[in-house]
């Protein structure tokens, strides 16, 4: 039997033990959120959300300080359900995913320096075997489905009698992904509207932070940087061609991922045969996660596009990427580099022409035939000829 100290409870706030530690902190949630303790927890939850939005999901996140006093521990533990309430009020699947990804990685970071007793306890609490190096296929599949590396694919694992073999060093990664799955499973939760109203400033703040992140990551929507597949689907939409369900999903998710407003995406479908506004709104909102379900919202990767026959006219850049979003980012970078180059060339030409004009007015003569070209004019001036 493991004994968890207060610090352990703050490190692992998802545990039943942590939630019972804070017990009944107020007679009602509404009252608590308005109390000084509740306000601290809201602040703590907002900080968690900020970290979650900027976390890249590749390296261990920095570990937060956990002050030892009971009050701080209570605030940290309480901020866990508060952060879940905030993303539930936001009704945005992307925010939910960002939050659970960050929180599960935080646990993973803490586990790196954890006693084997606590590790065993955590495994058990999330439904994994305490010891051993195998997990059932049914538990393994939802966990491994988000792992990109080839080694996690079921065909690359040893499976004996419905159990998947996992190396001891991989186990913390399994815990992290299982936790992510478990944490996301019940989100969004149903929150009374009075609570969401109370948390509206935090919800708005997180949403606008997220918009800023999208803008930083993808910038303004630049149609000329769309990959050939998305251009082709847009072409089919404009030409009233037939669109498969997968093609609709791919383009809607892609446009949502690069930051296009839902209303703009819905407008695009206006040309599609048998356009049904209500149905389209429903589908687009689901893809963007606003429909309150766990529907997938990331545009499919190239391999999936290929399987569905919608990887159309791949070009040379397609050889170097495996996701339409990566294509878009790289192409956009290329375009802005080109634009930058041509702007500086134009600036250079303007400077040369200005110089020539100045020279003409100084000499007072008609030197229209002597306006230096970009190739030789600058040198002539410098050489004083
Ligand atoms: S390779 Fe990928 S990005 Fe390129 S056209 Fe195919 S699906 Fe689109």
UniProtKB/TrEMBL annotation:
Residue segments, region Disordered? 333-385
Q: Name one GO biological process term.
A: DNA replication initiation
Iron as a keyword of this entry, yes or no, is yes
Q: List keywords of the entry alphabetically.
A: 4Fe-4S, DNA replication, Iron, Iron-sulfur, Metal-binding, Nucleotidyltransferase, Primosome, Transferase
- Extract the NCBIfam families matched here: PRK02249.1-5
Q: Which family does it belong to?
A: Belongs to the eukaryotic-type primase large subunit family.
Q: State whether it acts alone or in a complex, and with which partners, per the record.
A: Heterodimer of a small subunit (PriS) and a large subunit (PriL).
Q: What does this protein do?
A: Regulatory subunit of DNA primase, an RNA polymerase that catalyzes the synthesis of short RNA molecules used as primers for DNA polymerase during DNA replication. Stabilizes and modulates the activity of the small subunit, increasing the rate of DNA synthesis, and conferring RNA synthesis capability. The DNA polymerase activity may enable DNA primase to also catalyze primer extension after primer synthesis. May also play a role in DNA repair.
Name of this protein: DNA primase large subunit PriL
Q: Which organism is it from?
A: Methanospirillum purgamenti
């Amino acid at each position: 039997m493991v004994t968890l100290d207060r610090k352990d409870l703050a490190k692992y706030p998802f545990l039943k033990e942590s939630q019972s530690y804070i017990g009944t902190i107020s007679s009602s949630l509404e009252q608590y959120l308005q109390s000084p303790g509740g306000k601290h927890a809201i602040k703590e939850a907002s900080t968690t959300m900020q970290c979650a939005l900027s976390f890249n999901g590749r390296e261990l996140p920095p570990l937060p300080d956990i002050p030892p006093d009971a009050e701080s521990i209570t605030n940290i533990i309480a901020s866990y359900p508060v952060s879940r309430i905030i993303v539930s009020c936001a009704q945005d699947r992307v925010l939910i995913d960002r939050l659970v990804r960050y929180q599960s990685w935080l646990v993973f970071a803490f586990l790196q320096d954890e006693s084997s007793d606590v590790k065993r306890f955590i495994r058990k609490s999330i439904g994994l075997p305490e010891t051993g190096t195998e997990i059932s296929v049914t538990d393994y599949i939802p966990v491994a489905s988000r792992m990109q590396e080839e080694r996690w694919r079921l065909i690359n694992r040893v499976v004996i009698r419905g159990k998947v073999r996992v190396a001891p060093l991989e186990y913390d990664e399994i815990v992290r992904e299982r936790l992510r799955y478990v944490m996301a499973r019940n989100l969004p939760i149903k929150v009374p509207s009075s609570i969401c109203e109370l948390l509206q400033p935090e919800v708005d703040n997180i949403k606008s932070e997220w918009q800023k992140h999208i803008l930083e990551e993808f910038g303004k929507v630049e149609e000329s940087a769309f990959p050939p597949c998305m251009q082709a689907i847009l072409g089919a939409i404009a030409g009233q061609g037939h669109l498969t369900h997968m093609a609709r999903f791919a383009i809607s998710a892609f446009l949502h991922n690069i930051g296009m407003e839902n209303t703009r995406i819905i407008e695009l479908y206006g040309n599609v045969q048998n356009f049904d506004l209500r149905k389209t709104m429903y589908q687009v909102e689901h893809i963007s996660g606003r429909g309150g379900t766990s529907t997938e919202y990331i545009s499919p990767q190239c391999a999936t596009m290929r399987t569905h026959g919608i990887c159309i006219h791949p070009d040379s850049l397609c050889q170097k990427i495996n996701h339409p979003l990566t294509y878009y980012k790289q192409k956009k970078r290329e375009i802005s580099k080109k634009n930058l180059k041509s702007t500086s060339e134009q600036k250079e030409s303007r400077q040369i022409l200005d110089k020539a004009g100045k020279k003409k007015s100084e000499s007072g003569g008609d030197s229209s035939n002597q306006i230096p070209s970009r190739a030789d004019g600058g040198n002539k001036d410098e050489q004083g000829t």
